[in-house]
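Our consortium's second objective concerns turning raw sequence data into structural hypotheses that experimental partners can test. To show how far this objective has progressed, the report includes one record in full. It was chosen at random from the queue rather than selected for favorable results. The single chain below, 131 residues long, was entered without modification.
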Amino acid sequence: MKKLIHVAVGVIENGRGEIFVTKRLSHQHQGGKWEFPGGKVEEGETLLLALDRELKEEIGINVTLAEPLLVVEHDYGDKAVKLDVWLVRGFVGQPKGLEGQEGKWVAIKDIDTLTFPEANAPIVATVKALQ
């Protein structure tokens, strides 16, 4: 049985109708596609702790206000993921790619013009409904 990778994901909204996204590095799984920042939940970590840690490491922000948005399970064939997605409406710092990845704010109305990994399709649909 293939391992399920549990990921805490942040849909970071700035109050101006924009969401912060990052581009996966070309050597990564699903490289070159846009994603909502986040990362693996470590053993014994709560989802909120994992989200805060990952967003601090990846894009340099501290989460101050977040609420669960949706959970997505997706099987890519070579790996399976469980994405615990949080809507982040409060944070300290200015998000930017800290691991060499490109990052940008994109208008919610334009979010579906970017190419995301397949597992992100339900997230994109949910984000579109926020506008």
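The partners drew two points from this record. The beta strands are 4-13, 18-23, 34-35, 38-40, 62-75, 80-92, 103-107. The first helix runs from residue 47 to 59. Both points have been shared with the crystallography group to help prioritize constructs.
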